[in-house]
What does this fold into?
Amino acid sequence: MWRARTRYDGWSIGALVVGFLLNSIPMAAAQSPAPSATSTSWVGALASALAPTAATPAKSPCEWLDQKTGAQLDETEQRFAKQLYDSAQLPQPYHGVLSSNVLPAEGLSRLSMDSKINEAQQSCVLAFLVDEVEGLRNLRRLHFRSVNVDTFKDTASGAESTRIFFSIPSKESPPHWFWKPATLILGAYPKAGGDPILSFSLPVSISSRTYSRLGGLAFAVIAYLCAALASWRKTGIRGRETFSLSPVQITAGVLGSGSISQLQVFFFSLLIASILFFLWLWTGLLSNISEDLLMLMGISSLGAVGAKYTATIKSRLSEDASKFLYSEGWFSGRQITTINGEPRMGDLLLTNNRLDVYKFQMAMFSVLVAVYILGAGATDLGEVKISTTLLYLIGISQGVYVGGKAIAEREQTLEDRVKSMIGLKAAFAGATDSAKKTQITADYCKTATAAREDFRAIMNIEVENAKLKLA
It folds into this structure.
């Protein structure tokens, strides 16, 4: 009995406790006041604090590399370079072309893609150089500050393209030759990280600016020597008797005197060709030539042609003069194969032994423009700009020079001298006074000697001394 009552009392007490709890919980929930705004915000903050933290945003490779140093940096660079190289072996969504397979050390290079890539402008661009792709031997990173992304729109077709500019540091210059081989690995990652947007692996040659300059200088020296040899050896009708490196002798005019117009064309041509050769060695491209430079060359060439044409016109013989010289036997002399006379440096600035201000003006502006081209064209002749007013001034200077040459290049032309010889010979035939004949003979010999110099320069025919005397 006791055991049964005890078991019953225990079940009764347990039932009462459970019933009390079931009744008290709803009542408490019903009687509890609604939570205030303050209590709600506090609960939300507590819940947020107890909730798991959100994942940290992914970093771009550029951010990862900026945070690494020493061995960690080397390892991270190797990892990203390997990823870009492996990705470059797969088909690419974009077609990229280098401006040249020769990357100029200390210069700017460009990778162009034939479509606009908006993601590339907001991306992390990485560029590496390696000596060998197997194992990425001697990996060097081109830092981000030397890489720039730009969108280019063709004004003619309206097509847009993306260009990635990057520079090669001077320490990459080959130590012993014009170029050295390397492999360029280049790609772009999203700012938020992830797989590359684009990647390229291209074999290239890195050039040396110093050796390229030496190559341009060697080209100028060789070209100059060729011009000196051409003016020395027999070319066409005649050449010079002695070899000379004088630029005045190399560029002498039709009558054998120094020609500033031909010297100007010679040096402008030599300067521009040498810079073009230097830029070809350095960038692997024949640079464009700006319209201003073409205009300058055109003005100089027109000036030289005008001066040469003027000298030729002033030396042309009339029919009467030609007949007279034929009768005197001047055209029967031996053909001249070499030039014995040497032009002087003073011929460049003097006319009839007086300073020619037109020549002086042209010489000053020629030197000024040549120095400017040497400095401004050191990276790209296509970007050389010459002010329109300066081009006008050079053109005016050339025109005034040619005009002055046409008016008073020489005190007397060959035609005038031959006419004087004809008149003196007629006067000699009609003279009866021996003293007067002696004076006429002396004047004739003097005039004939001066005419012979012009005749030799124009006709390339030697005239004997005996033919200079009045018979």
The two ends are 185 Å apart (CA to CA). The longest helix spans residues 2-31. The chain is about 50% helix and 15% strand. Residues 1-56 have pLDDT under 50 and may be disordered.
